[in-house]
Amino acid sequence: xxxxxxxxxxxxxxxxxxxxxxxxxxxxxxxxxxxxxxxxxxxxxxxxxxxxxxxxxxxxxxxxxxxxxxxxxxxxxxxxxxxxxxxxxxxxxxxxxxxxxxxxxxxxxxxxxxxxxxxxxxxxxxxxxxxxxxxxxxxxxxxxxxxxxxxxxxxxxxxxxxxxxxxxxxxxxxxxxxxxxxxxxxxxxxxxxxxxxxxxxxxxxxxxxxxxxxxxxxxxxxxxxxxxxxxxxxxxxxxxxxxxxxxxxxxxxxxxxxxxxxxxxxxxxxxxxxxxxxxxxxxxxxxxxxxxxxxxxxxxxxxxxx
Length: 306
Known about the structure:
CATH topology of the largest domain: D-Maltodextrin-Binding Protein, domain 2
CATH architecture of the largest domain: 3-Layer(aba) Sandwich
Helix content: 40-55%
CATH superfamily of the largest domain: Periplasmic binding protein-like II
Radius of gyration: 32 Å
Strand content: 15-25%
Shape: rod-shaped
Number of helices: 10
Structural class: alpha/beta
CATH class of the largest domain: Alpha Beta
């Protein structure tokens, strides 16, 4: 009688990859000490379970189950079982994580934004809807955010663009943007309903420095009107622009939705400003269907309807 660990008759050198289905069948037989019980547990026929265990035995060139002893593992089978059970345990943990990610019970989403007033309401809504998803936020200008998306350093970004982004991006437009002029309280223009560009340019002009979509929009609008852009100050952020305006250094230009509430400043429409920009939520098209990103885009569509 051959030893229990003797290779099966069709034993050969291992070829190809080991099948997880074969591992599951082998582990089920060892844990239930029965091919028939393993088959019921797996929802398979007994011949199918037998074939899968035989496949694994052929892969290793070893007898793993001693059929003479009530489906007991051989010495080599016991050693392999310990490793196989560890593999399945890790796989089950991964499957749990995958289910949680799909259900947005956990996960990680990297969100960039260039427009805090528009971004924070949407980010807050996503956080309330998906408290298990960790958010990693980064603020930057539009052009850097597009680069970060291309380099897969950011998953989704909220930004102002003059036109929808081309492929490979996907986007949701949530609101239109128009430029406004910020004047200090007490300025001669503070009580006006709106101010035309020609009047704005009679004052010292404070703008956000390049690269920024605000500067690009100002430059484009003035060029279309044949008016020069000669800023008195170019500052690195909209917050510094607002502080300069509040201090009486000049008039500031920003998108109307980004002027915010400040008792020191009055934000006025520019009478002949173009409706040429919009806030978009942008991601790469090939990842737009991932659960967390898809949920973010769905919320953005809801915001666009309000």
